[in-house]
Design a protein that fits this description.
Number of helices: 4
Shape: elongated
Number of strands: 2
Order of helices and strands: EHHHHE
Helix content: 25-40%
Strand order of the largest sheet: 1-2
Bound molecules: zinc ion
Structural class: mainly alpha
Number of domains: 2
Radius of gyration: 19 Å
Distance between the termini: 31 Å
Length: 140
């Protein structure tokens, strides 16, 4: 298996390329199967015929849409639903604003984060095409 960004050979068990730091199967410059340079828009590798289609089209996330939505509704102020979905940056913002901002604003910031989480939770529950932090569609 080869890094799709830099063409370096990577261990199939590794989740990121040790050379360029790209996550496995991200990037579109090299064939992951034979390491041949590919056209960024190509659907298959011209050398080995390996399918280069984005995995998000068929693959489902192992995260549950219902669980993510409920976490957002009940624990959204702390970004728990975003931690669950792997959207760590957004989750950390919600958590920190909620706790640190909440102390300085007598809880107003926490309330705002709670409403943000609530809205996100409802959107996740009502959106059949909701995706996780990796762009994979959530399972029901
Ligand atoms: Zn790489
Ligand atoms: Zn190939």
């Amino acid at each position: 298996m080869y890094c799709r960004n830099c063409g370096e050979q990577i261990n199939p068990n590794a989740s990121v390329c040790v050379k360029c730091g790209f996550a496995k199967n991200t990037g579109n410059l090299y064939c992951p199967n034979c390491g041949e340079q590919t056209n960024p828009g190509a659907a298959v590798c011209v050398k080995c015929g390996f399918s280069l289609a984005e995995p998000e089209s068929s693959e489902l996330s192992d995260k549950s849409r219902i669980a993510a939505g409920l976490l957002g509704i009940f624990l959204g102020a702390f970004g728990i639903h975003n931690f669950y979905l792997g959207r760590t940056t957004r989750a950390l913002v919600q958590l920190l604003v909620s706790i640190i901002g909440g102390i300085f604003t007598c809880g107003i910031a926490s309330m705002a984060m709670g409403i943000w989480g609530l809205v996100e939770g409802i959107l996740i529950l009502t959106n059949k095409d909701a995706v996780d932090g990796n762009g994979l569609k959530l399972k029901d």
